[in-house]
Amino acid sequence: xxxxxxxxxxxxxxxxxxxxxxxxxxxxxxxxxxxxxxxxxxxxxxxxxxxxxxxxxxxxxxxxxxxxxxxxxxxxxxxxxxxxxxxxxxxxxxxxxxxxxxxxxxxxxxxxxxxxxxxxxxxxxxxxxxxxxxxxxxxxxxxxxxxxxxxxxxxxxxxxxxxxxxxxxxxxxxxxxxxxxxxxxxxxxxxxxxxxxxxxxxxxxxxxxxxxxxxxxxxxxxxxxxxxxxxxxxxxxxxxxxxxxxxxxxxxxxxxxxxxxxxxxxxxxxxxxxxxxxxxxxxxxxxxxxxxxxxxxxxxxxxxxxxxxxxxxxxxxxxxxxxxxxxxxxxxxxxxxxxxxxxxxxxxxxxxxxxxxxxxxxxxxxxxxxxxxxxxxxxxxxxxxxxxxxxxxxxxxxxxxxxxxxxxxxxx
Length: 412
Known about the structure:
Order of helices and strands: EHEEHEEHEEHEEHEEHEEEEHEEEE
Strand order of the largest sheet: 8-7-6-2-1-11-12-19-18-15-16
Number of strands: 19
Distance between the termini: 11 Å
CATH architecture of the largest domain: Alpha-Beta Barrel
Strand content: 25-35%
Number of helices: 7
CATH superfamily of the largest domain: Metal-dependent hydrolases
CATH topology of the largest domain: TIM Barrel
Number of domains: 2
Helix content: 10-25%
Radius of gyration: 21 Å
């Protein structure tokens, strides 16, 4: 059996010397929007919702802007309008909410990140990280890259191809990290938004470890269609070639809300509480969360919870936190080292990756303690859990709660 190169924190001692037993699960969302760009609510109101609903960390990632400076907006002529303002004023009061009438125009000041972070953060309980959605294009195709825990604003970088635009934006985040010493990372947003990205646009990226396998916005096409791959199929193709051909690190899959709408809760609106990450880390701090995620010590969820994940040289197993009357089905999915590699880009982007041995079902079970025993020829193995419970306020009608566990690589 080849040596498993990725270990979940239960079997590790971190670089800081903290043992696995001292870690805990932290729930967070890394992609959402406010009135600083195209969301319809104030940052404090958004942070307040996540704080009250069991989240431990949040990144409000507005488009091509950081919440900085002295910015006043029209109270009524914005995405949230008078309704959002009245709710904001009621929740936080006139001592906090700055508003005025100037030349007969009612205005309210948007609090900047440093202000709302100081007000809403609670050490050890709720963490806010500054974020930005770098919103770029290539020949009209949308390319969006999130940046988590930024220190300074980054403009969209552009480029001469889809892959180059992604790489340039990724590089800009990594360069800021190197220059400032502040932990931060980029991730690829909703690859099927506008059917923008194909696996071959992402396979050979350097320095990019994350993409959204699930996004709660109704326009992002998570499940593909008759002419397009689903995001989980994209995920498998990326990792088959990254690990098997290019010897690059695995790409991990995130679940996010991408919320814009906070006042009307319905299918067809981009609401809160649809997708999140559960990170196993020793502390609720940006460095700790980022370090754990870069190791793959997290899973993504739209409702299914896990109590533990364990990886040894021989097996990959975990325990599902059950709910009464709910059943769970787990698929272990992966690609073996003898998959049918193709140099033809169209074939790599095929609608039928399983025909090439990519993303095969290697095992399935109804157990609440699923376990996969490695055979030794797997490039990677990941797990996908689907429960019988219908999701409250789903991304799409009839959607069931799910969890996506990060792939485990067995290559040397």
